[in-house]
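Intended use. Records such as the Endothelial differentiation-related factor 1 entry shown here are meant for training and evaluating sequence-to-structure methods. They are not intended to support clinical decisions.
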Amino acid sequence: MAESDWDTVTVLRKKGPTAAQAKSKQAITSAQRRGEEVQTSKKWAAGQNKQHLVTKNTAKLDRETEELHHDRVPLEVGKVIQQGRQEKGLTQKDLATKINEKPQVIADYECGRAIPNNQVMGKIERAIGLKLRGKDIGQPLEPKTKK
C-alpha cells in the first residue's frame, strides 16, 4: 500500500552540448541560425606562448644607457654636519636624540649615503646652528625674526 502512494515519473531530457561542442564553429553557426544569442570573445594570445616575445620597446630599453639613481647628500654637507656637531660637543647619538631621529640617520648624512629630506635637514640645521641647504652652506643660521 505504501508503495502505491507514489507515482513514478520518468523524465526524458535531451542533454545540452558539452563545453567543447558548444564552442565549436558548427555549434555557433547553428545557434545563430536558430536566432539564439551568441556571445563570443577573443582572448589575447590564447593558447600561445607570447609572454616572452621581444618587442620593439624591449629592444629600446636595452639600448637605454642612462642610469637612474637618487641624489645623495653631498659630502660637503656631511662635513658641515660633523663639524657643527663636534663644535657643540655632541655625539651622533646625542644629535639624533635631540632631533628625534635614529643615530644611523645622522651617520648616513655625515658620510653622504642619505637621500636628502628637507624635514630632517631642517632639524639638523636648527640643532647645530649652521645652514645645510642653499648656496651658503656652512654659514651660521640666522634666527627668523618675528614681525
